[in-house]
Backbone:
């Protein structure tokens, strides 16, 4: 297999992955932690940062593992397990590095790192990268953009939920229900971007 | 724990439905529901993965050290998901292509991890299998309901059969992302209201004999 470095303009891909095909609002990935954590503005910031960092690093590592180990050995059918192990390993190493380098950052980021191993946005970004056959630069750019898009979405939702809290909501819709409707409106807003850049 | 199979069924299907009440597994709930056939394929996959991984993890529960429990769970689940993925590719290549990454994402479906953690870790293998299967059925019921609405209004058809009359204008929003959020919220609202009403009725029924018994000491 030969790899082209620029099959698509990386800058366009970067903005497309943040806005037009936001990983959360148009691909629905990472919803579980998105709904439970967005109650609190500060935690949302921490989780968004953690997702962005982990997603970028794991995409780069998985790309190398995919095209230099899995594909040459013909082990494509094992790719799910390999990706999961890569994510778990990156999260584990990152946790140790941050703990050593900056205890302050560890305090704010540390609790979110284990959660990320099972965050479907990370695995989803890697699977999209595999299915769409992105080159290395594209993969990293796509992952960074998707992470930033996820971060943006959770910050916006946390801000909106802070406002909703003090308003009367029908009892059956409290919590998850009204949050889903809010996310629906956000998704409609993001559809407005879709005319700008097409992503594939 | 002495949970009865019938009670587990009712809990997982309705009273403690994984999607409506526990709010788990939302990612795929939203992503695959734009047509009924893909939804059926996906939910059968999730049910089987949950059932078999619950069974396996319950068998292994005494052998796994606590520290590596999570990673063992994820590996067992990935094993079953890989099987499902291979089967889909072989027998339903088109559905497999349309579902794309979402088949692989069954691994990180919170329902499976949730059942493994909450039920299989403390129960016997067969009942864990049943619990996983019924959780999957609860998930299936909600998803198929949403997919029906989306396919009928978005394409005017069900499972590819045209249902709506010629002049029907498809609702474009039903095919796009936001409608999934709105519909999930609607179903949640409906389910919670029905359950709240039932609970209120049960409470009223329980409270009713009390006033009858209450005043008698006062009279005496």
Residues:
């Amino acid at each position: 297999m030969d790899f082209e470095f620029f099959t698509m303009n990386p800058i366009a891909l970067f903005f497309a992955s943040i806005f037009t095909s936001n990983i959360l609002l148009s691909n629905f990935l990472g919803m579980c932690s998105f709904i439970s954590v967005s109650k609190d503005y500060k935690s949302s910031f921490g989780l968004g940062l953690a997702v962005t960092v982990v997603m970028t690093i794991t995409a780069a590592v998985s790309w190398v593992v995919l095209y230099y180990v899995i594909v040459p050995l013909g082990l494509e059918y094992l790719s799910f397990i390999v990706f999961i192990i890569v994510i778990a390993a990156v999260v584990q190493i990152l946790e140790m590095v941050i703990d050593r380098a900056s205890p302050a950052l560890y305090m704010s980021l540390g609790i979110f790192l284990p959660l990320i191993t099972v965050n479907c946005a990370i695995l989803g970004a890697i699977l999209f990268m595999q299915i769409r056959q992105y080159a290395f630069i594209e993969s990293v750019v796509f992952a960074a953009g998707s992470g930033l898009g996820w971060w943006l979405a959770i910050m916006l939702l946390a801000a909106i939920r802070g406002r909703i809290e003090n308003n009367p909501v029908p009892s059956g819709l409290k919590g998850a229900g009204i949050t889903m409707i809010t996310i629906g409106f956000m998704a409609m807003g993001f559809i407005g971007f879709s005319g700008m850049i097409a992503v594939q | 724990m002495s949970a009865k199979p019938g009670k587990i069924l009712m809990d997982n299907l309705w009273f403690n439905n994984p999607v409506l009440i526990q709010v788990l597994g939302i990612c795929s709930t939203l992503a695959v529901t734009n047509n009924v056939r893909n939804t059926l394929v996906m939910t059968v996959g999730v049910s089987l993965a949950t059932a078999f991984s619950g069974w396996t993890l319950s068998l292994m529960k005494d052998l796994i050290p606590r520290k590596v429990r999570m990673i063992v769970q994820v590996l067992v689940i990935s094993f079953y998901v890989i099987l499902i993925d291979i089967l889909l590719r072989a027998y339903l290549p088109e559905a497999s292509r349309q579902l794309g990454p979402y088949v692989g994402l069954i691994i990180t479906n919170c329902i499976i991890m949730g059942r493994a953690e909450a039920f299989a870790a403390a129960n016997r293998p067969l009942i864990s299998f049943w619990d996983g299967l019924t959780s999957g059925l609860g998930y299936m019921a909600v998803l198929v309901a949403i997919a029906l609405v989306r396919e009928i209004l978005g394409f005017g058809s069900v499972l590819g059969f045209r249902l709506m009359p010629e002049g029907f204008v498809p609702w474009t929003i039903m095919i796009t992302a936001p409608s999934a959020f709105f519909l999930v919220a609607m179903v949640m609202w409906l389910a919670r209201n029905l359950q709240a009403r039932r609970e209120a009725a049960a409470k009223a029924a329980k409270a009713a004999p009390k006033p009858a018994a209450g005043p008698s000491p006062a009279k005496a």
